[in-house]
Design a protein that fits this description.
The protein has two helices and five strands; from the N terminus they run αβββββα. The chain is an alpha+beta fold. The chain has two domains: 35 residues; 53 residues, SH3 type barrels (Roll), CATH 2.30.30.60. Strands 4-3-2-1-5 form a five-stranded antiparallel sheet, covered by helices on one side. The protein is elongated and about 95 Å long. It starts with 24 loop residues before the first helix and ends with a helix. The mean pLDDT is 86.
Length: 112
């Protein structure tokens, strides 16, 4: 037994503490995470979606808009699902109404 490498004696592994808290603590933690998740992610997204839908319902001919693809133009015609956007003199694009990202202030096209 006297060698260069001493024998390793197994020590007792630390015993994990049992579920010492309340049996409802896990459920309470999960409910708290769901509430935090709702207020941090779901609620702001719903608010943003409502604002976008309100903006789309107010679109009219003559409004200057930017599409999700980054195209800046003036609305010439508004339909139920599509809008016609004039991007240059005589150049008109028909895009889906939901692809209109934002409404720009009047005169943006002249400065661009």
């Amino acid at each position: 037994m006297n060698g260069l490498i001493p024998e390793a004696w197994a020590q007792g592994a630390p015993v994990a503490p049992g579920p010492g808290g309340s049996p409802y603590s896990f459920i309470f933690m999960m409910v708290a995470f769901v509430i935090i998740f709702y207020f941090m992610l779901i609620r702001p997204q719903q608010k943003k979606q409502k604002e976008h839908q309100a903006m789309l319902s107010k679109l009219s001919a003559g409004d200057e808009v930017v599409t999700t693809g980054g195209i800046l133009g003036r609305i010439v015609e508004v339909g139920d699902a599509f809008v016609t956007v004039e991007v240059a003199d005589g150049v008109r694009l028909k895009v889906q109404k939901v692809q209109v990202a934002s409404l720009m202030p009047k005169g943006t096209l002249k400065s661009a």
